[in-house]
Design goal:
The complex is a heterodimer of chains A (about 800) and B (about 150).
Chain A (H helix, E strand, L loop, with lengths): L13 H5 L15 E7 L5 E7 L1 H4 L4 E6 H6 L26 E2 L5 E7 L2 H10 L1 E6 L25 E8 L1 H14 L1 E12 L8 E7 L4 E6 L4 H10 L9 E4 L16 H12 L3 E4 L2 H7 L3 E12 L5 E11 L28 E9 L14 H19 L3 H8 L8 E2 L5 E2 L4 H11 L2 H13 L3 E10 L7 H7 L7 E7 L5 E5 L8 H13 L6 E5 L16 H28 L6 E4 L4 E4 L2 E6 L1 H10 L12 E6 L8 E10 L6 E11 L6 H20 L30 E6 L16 H18 L13 H8 L9
Parallel strand pairs in A: 1-12, 10-11, 14-15, 20-21, 27-28
Antiparallel strand pairs in A: 1-5, 2-4, 2-6, 3-5, 7-15, 8-13, 9-10, 9-12, 13-14, 16-17, 18-26, 19-20, 19-25, 22-23, 23-24, 26-27
Helix pairs in contact in A: 9-10, 9-18, 14-15, 17-18
Chain B lengths: L1 E6 L2 E6 L6 H8 L18 E4 L2 E4 L12 E3 L11 H8 L9 H14 L5 H7 L11 H16 L1
Parallel strand pairs in B: 1-5
Antiparallel strand pairs in B: 1-2, 3-4, 3-5
Helix pairs in contact in B: 2-5, 3-5
Classes of the chains: A alpha+beta (about 800), B alpha+beta (about 150).
Chain lengths: ~800, ~150
C-alpha cells in the first residue's frame, strides 16, 4: 500500500541549499537594522568592580551600550532551568551578569551600533575592572574542600545528586561476586565536547512599536519552548505578542535546544531603540557560549558469576554542568543516563548515582546522544572488560547476557521499560555483515607480525522520543513531550502540514510529507510542510532526543486519520451511501462505495465540497483541517550492533579506522536514504569524540581549545567507508512503528572505537585508556612497552 | 577605498573600508548570502568561492585584495540551472543542514576541475579544508565521484 514510505525520496529542501538560498537567520537583513555585539568575560571567575562604557559610547556609529543592570531594572528575569530533579540548587543566571562572571565568555555588556564592525570596535573600548578569583574546572575536584565556591548558596558546588536503582541488591551482588565470581572496575572520563554545528547561533529581533509585537528569528531547534521561556521568565512579552521563528537552522546536535542570553538581549535592545537588531556569533563566541556536551567522571563496576552472567552494574558519576544550569542540563546525567545503564542486558541489580556539579566553565547540556552515549560508554567498556577477564569472545559474552526476544516489554531496574527488540538477530546480522570471524582471524595474524590491530564491538540501547509527558514531569521536566500536527486541506486539494517539530538537517520537509502523502493517497508534490514559526504552527515541542518521526510525524498520522474520516462522511452523504460502506482508497485518495467503484469522488472534489458547504451532512462544520496533539505512551528504544577495525601505528601512535560496520534497529524506516545519512553522520561524530575532539580548560579556566585550530573536528580524510545495515523491529506503540535514528550512530560509535583501540593495545597489557585516543597519548603509553628493535 | 569586483558576471563598484572581508562584502554589500560563514580562523571552508578561477576562502581575503577580480559564488555557479556538482549533492544526499554545502560544492568543483582522475583518497584529502558536521562526509565523497564522472563526460 505504501507508495512513498520506505522509498529513498530525494529531499524537497535541497534545491534551496545547493543553490545558496538557505534561509538562515544570519542571512536576514531588515531595513534600518542595527547590530549587536556582546562584551564577554576574559576570566573564568572574577568579581566585576566597575564597567566604564564612556569611551565606547563616544565612538561614532555606536547607538547604545547596555549592562545587566539596565536589563534587570526593566524587569528582565533570570534564565530558568527546565528540568529540576528533587533538591536541585539552581544558580542564578542572567542574560547579562552584574557583579560576577563565572566562565570565560560570560556576557557582561551589549553594544548596539550601525554596523557589525563598529560594534566589535566598541567592545574593545569598554573598560571592565575585574578582580580575578580562583577557578574550579574539574567535575569531581570542584566538590572537594578548598575548591573555589562559585555560587554563594550552593555548597561544595553540587547542584544536585540523583540516584536510582537497586542499591542494596547491587551491594549484595558485588559481595557475592567478590567471593564466588568476578568484579571488573573501570574509572572513566567521558571528556567534554563542543557541539559545533556549522552555523553559529544568531538572532534577529524586530519590535513593532505600532502593533506592540515582537518578532524574533533565532537559531533554535524548538521555537515554541523558547517563546514560552521568553514570555514567562525572561523578556516578559506575552506569548500572543511574541512570534519566534526558526527558519533554516544549520545544524543543532542539541546545542540549539536551549534558551540563550542573546535571545533575551537582542529583542530587549530592539524594543529599547525601536529598530530591528541582529546578532551573529563568531565561531570564537560559539566555543565559549554554546552549551557543551558530556564531561562525566565515573567510577563504574560490574559483578558477574563464574559463568559470566552479569549480576550487578554500579556507577558513581560526577557530571560537570558548567557555571550555570543550562535549560535541560540536569536531565542529561539523570533520566537520560542512569536510566540507560541496563544496556541490552538482563541485569538484576543496576544502581547509579550522579552528582551534578558546577565549575567555572561553559554550561553543559544535551549534545547528540545526551547522556545515552555516556551510559553506553560505561556499560560497553565494562562488558568488554568483563569478557576479557572471562576470556570469552565479547560478542558471546554479550549474547549470554542479552534480554531475550520473548521478554519484551522489558522492565529494567532503572525505570525504563523497553518496547521491543531482538538483540541476537541484530548481532547475527552484524557478525555476518562485518565477516567478524575473518576480522578476528586477520587480527590474530597481524598480532603475530607485531602489528597493533584492534577489533571493537559495541551493542547499545537508546531511549528516544521522551514520553509520556506525565512520566517526564515526574522525572523533573517542567514541560511536556507531546507534539502537535495539523493537516490543512485547502479547497483545491493541496495540503499544508504544520508540525511543532523542527528540521535542521533531518529532512522533515521530505519524510513528513512522504508519511502524509501515503496516509491521504495524494502526490507528495501536493503537500508542503510548515514548521519553525510560532505565528503559523500550534504550540509544539520541537526537535531533540530523536523524537521528530516517532512523535511529530505520528501526530500527523493521527490528524490524517481524522481527515479521512471527515472526507468519508462527506463522500457518504454525497454518494448517498452509509459511511461504513465508503472505502477510502489510500493508493489514489479517492473514496468510493464498497462494491461499486463507479460511485466515487476524488480527493480534490471532496476538499472543494468541504469548503463550499453546499451539500454537507447535517451538523457537519465546513472546512477540512484537523489537529492532533500526540503524547506517546513510552519512549522508543532503538538499538545497535557496531563492529570496527582499527590499526595503531606503533611508531607514531596514530589510530586509523580501517573498517566500520553498523547494524542498527530504528524500527520501521520512512526514508532509508535519510536514515542512513543520520546514522553515518552520527557515527562520524562519535568517532570524533573517540579519536580527536577534546575541550581543554587550563587551571585558570581559560578555554585552550577555543577555535577550529585548537579543537580537532572530524574531517573528510579521517574515515573509511562506513557500512550500514539494519534490522527492523517496529515500535509497538506509535502509529508508524518508527524509533529514533538521529543519535544511535553517535551513541554507539564512540565506545565501538574505544573498545577497538583498547583491543589493539591489549597485547601490551593496556586495559583502559581515556579518550580521545590521540597519537601523542597512545605514543606516550606504548613507547616503553614495545620491543626496541621492532621492524 | 573604491573597489570594482565582478561577481557572477556582474561588475560592482563600491566604497569599502580597507578592513572589509571579502565574505562580508559579498554577503552584506551584495546581498549574496549563499556564501555562509562558519568560523573566524579560515578552517571550516563554508565561505569558499571562486576567485579568478581558484577556490578561495572568502573570509581570508580582503575586499580590497579582490579589486579587479572575477568572482563566482554559489549563486552564480550554474546561473539558474544546476551544475553537475549541485545535482550530485542532491542525488547522493550529500547535505543535511545545508550550511557547509555552498562552500563544499565550490571546493569540490575546483577539486574535480584541477584533477581529472581523482581517487577517493584524493577527494577526502582535497576536502580537508571544508568541514561538515552532519554527513560524516561519506555521501559528499559519493557526490564528488558522481559529479566528476559527469563533468568529465561532458
Amino acid at each position: 500500500m505504501a507508495k512513498y514510505v520506505g522509498e529513498r525520496v530525494k529531499r524537497f529542501e535541497d534545491p534551496r541549499f545547493i543553490q545558496g538560498r538557505g534561509k538562515y537567520v544570519a542571512n536576514l537583513t531588515l531595513n534600518n537594522m542595527a547590530y549587536v555585539a556582546i562584551k564577554r568575560s576574559p576570566y573564568a571567575h572574577a568579581k566585576i568592580n566597575s564597567i566604564d562604557t564612556s569611551a565606547a559610547l563616544a565612538l561614532p556609529g555606536v547607538i547604545a551600550i547596555y549592562t545587566g543592570k539596565d536589563l534587570q531594572d526593566s524587569g528582565v528575569g533570570a534564565l530558568p532551568c527546565g528540568w529540576l530533579v528533587p533538591g536541585t540548587k539552581v544558580p542564578v543566571r542572567h542574560a547579562l551578569v552584574t557583579d560576577k562572571v563565572c566562565h570565560v565568555g560570560d556576557s557582561v555588556a551589549a553594544v548596539v551600533a550601525e554596523n557589525p564592525y563598529i560594534a566589535e570596535d566598541a567592545l574593545d573600548l569598554i573598560e571592565v575592572d575585574y578582580d580575578p578569583l580562583p577557578a574550579a574546572i574539574n567535575a569531581r575536584h570542584t566538590t572537594e574542600s578548598g575548591a573555589p565556591q562559585i555560587h554563594p548558596d550552593i555548597e561544595n558546588n553540587i547542584s544536585y545528586s540523583w540516584e536510582l536503582g537497586e542499591k542494596e541488591g547491587a551491594e549484595k551482588a558485588f559481595a557475592e561476586a567478590e567471593a564466588n565470581g568476578h568484579v571488573v572496575k573501570i574509572d572513566l572520563i567521558n571528556q567534554r565536547l563542543v557541539p559545533n554545528a556549522m552555523e553559529p547561533r544568531a538572532c534577529v529581533a524586530d519590535w513593532n512599536g505600532f502593533t506592540e509585537e515582537m518578532t524574533l528569528w533565532t537559531t533554535s531547534q524548538n521555537p515554541h519552548p523558547i517563546r514560552l521561556l521568553l514570555s514567562a521568565f525572561t523578556l516578559g512579552i506575552p506569548e500572543n505578542r511574541l512570534r519566534v521563528i526558526s527558519p533554516d537552522v544549520g545544524g543543532g546536535f542539541g546545542s540549539k535546544i536551549f534558551h540563550y542570553p542573546e535571545e533575551v538581549i537582542v529583542p530587549w535592545i530592539s524594543r529599547e531603540i525601536s529598530r530591528p537588531c541582529k546578532w551573529v556569533a563568531t565561531r570564537s563566541e560559539s566555543f565559549m557560549t554554546d552549551s557543551q556536551g558530556r564531561d562525566h567522571v565515573s567510577e563504574a563496576e560490574l559483578a558477574m558469576t563464574a559463568e559470566g552472567t552479569i549480576t550487578a552494574l554500579r556507577v558513581k558519576t560526577w557530571a560537570d554542568q558548567g557555571a550555570y544550569l543550562s535549560t535541560f542540563a540536569p536531565l542529561i546525567p539523570t533520566a537520560f543516563y542512569i536510566c540507560l545503564l541496563s544496556g541490552l542486558y538482563k541485569i538484576p541489580n543496576v544502581y547509579g548515582i550522579a552528582h551534578g556539579t558546577l565549575t567555572n566553565t561553559v554550561p553543559v547540556d544535551a549534545y547528540r546522544g545526551a547522556g545515552r552515549p555516556e551510559a553506553s560508554y560505561v556499560v560497553e567498556r565494562l562488558v568488554e572488560e568483563a569478557a576479557r577477564v572471562m576470556n570469552m569472545d565479547s560478542i558471546e559474552f554479550r549474547r549470554h547476557n542479552f534480554i531475550g526476544v520473548d521478554e519484551f516489554p522489558y522492565q529494567t531496574p532503572v525505570a525504563m521499560a523497553y518496547d521491543s527488540g531482538d538483540y541476537n538477530k541484530l548481532f547475527d546480522k552484524a557478525v555476518e555483515f562485518a565477516s567478524y570471524q575473518e576480522l578476528r582471524d586477520a587480527q590474530a595474524k597481524a598480532r603475530k607480525e607485531g602489528r597493533l590491530v584492534g577489533i571493537g564491538v559495541a551493542g547499545c540501547i537508546e531511549a528516544s522520543g521522551p514520553a509520556p509527558s506525565k512520566i517526564a514531569g515526574a522525572l523533573g521536566a517542567a514541560v511536556g513531550f507531546w507534539e502537535s500536527g495539523v493537516i490543512r486541506v485547502h479547497p483545491t486539494g493541496k495540503v499544508s502540514l504544520m508540525t511543532g517539530s523542527h528540521t535542521h538537517g533531518q529532512g522533515h520537509e521530505t519524510a513528513f510529507v512522504q508519511v502524509v502523502a501515503d496516509e491521504l493517497g495524494i502526490p507528495m508534490e501536493d503537500i508542503e510542510l510548515i514548521h519553525g514559526d510560532t505565528g503559523k504552527v500550534p504550540f509544539g515541542m520541537g526537535t531533540y532526543g530523536s523524537r521528530s518521526a516517532s512523535v511529530g510525524a505520528s501526530a500527523l498520522v493521527i490528524s490524517a486519520g481524522k481527515v479521512r474520516e471527515k472526507m468519508k462522511r462527506i463522500a457518504a452523504h454525497q454518494l448517498e451511501a452509509a459511511v461504513e460502506d465508503i472505502v477510502y482508497d489510500q493508493s489514489n485518495g479517492t473514496m468510493y462505495v464498497s462494491g461499486s467503484s463507479d460511485k466515487a469522488m476524488a480527493f480534490g472534489e471532496i476538499s472543494f465540497a468541504a469548503y463550499t458547504a453546499h451539500n454537507l451532512p447535517d451538523e457537519m462544520e465546513p472546512g477540512l483541517e484537523e489537529t492532533s496533539f500526540y503524547d506517546p505512551a513510552n519512549f522508543t528504544f532503538p538499538n545497535s550492533a557496531h563492529i570496527a577495525q582499527v590499526e595503531i601505528d606503533r611508531h607514531t601512535g596514530e589510530v586509523t579506522v580501517q573498517k566500520y560496520f553498523a547494524v542498527d534497529d530504528v524500527g520501521n524506516v520512512i526514508n532509508p536514504m535519510i536514515v542512513e545519512g543520520q546514522i553515518v553522520g552520527g557515527i562520524a561524530q562519535g568517532v570524533g569524540q573517540a579519536l580527536w575532539e577534546n575541550t581543554v580548560y587550563n587551571e585558570d579556566g581559560q578555554l585552550l581549545s577555543g577555535s577550529f585550530l585548537d579543537y580537532a573536528m572530524p574531517r573528510a580524510d579521517g574515515f573509511p567507508r562506513i557500512n550500514t545495515d539494519r534490522t527492523e523491529t517496529p515500535s509497538p506503540h506509535n502509529p508508524l512503528g518508527v524509533k529514533g535514528c538521529g543519535e544511535m550512530g553517535t551513541i554507539t560509535s564512540t565506545v565501538t572505537i574505544a573498545n577497538a583501540v583498547v583491543d589493539a593495545l591489549a597485547p601490551l597489557g593496556i586495559t583502559h585508556m581515556d579518550m580521545p585516543f590521540t597519537a601523542q597519548k597512545i605514543h606516550s603509553a606504548i613507547a616503553n612497552k614495545l620491543p626496541v628493535a621492532a621492524d | 577605498m573604491q573597489v570594482t569586483i565582478t561577481v557572477n558576471g556582474k561588475s560592482h563598484t563600491r566604497d569599502v573600508e580597507p578592513r572589509t572581508l571579502l565574505s562580508d562584502f559579498i554577503r552584506d554589500g551584495l546581498n549574496l548570502t549563499g556564501t555562509n560563514i562558519g568560523c573566524d580562523t579560515s578552517q571550516c571552508g563554508a565561505c569558499t568561492i571562486h576567485m579568478n578561477g581558484q577556490a578561495v576562502k572568502a573570509c581570508t581575503v580582503l575586499a580590497v585584495q579582490a579589486d579587479g577580480s572575477n568572482l563566482t559564488t554559489i549563486e552564480g555557479l550554474a546561473n539558474g540551472d544546476l551544475h553537475p556538482m549541485q545535482k550530485a549533492f542532491w542525488n547522493e544526499h550529500a547535505l543535511q543542514c545545508g550550511y557547509c554545502t555552498p562552500g563544499m560544492i565550490m571546493s569540490a568543483v575546483k577539486l574535480v576541475e584541477n584533477n581529472p582522475s581523482l581517487t577517493e583518497a584524493d577527494i577526502r584529502h582535497g576536502l580537508e579544508g571544508n568541514m561538515c558536521r552532519c554527513t560524516g562526509y561519506e555521501n559528499i565523497v559519493n557526490a564528488v565521484q558522481s559529479a566528476a564522472a559527469e563533468m568529465q563526460g561532458a
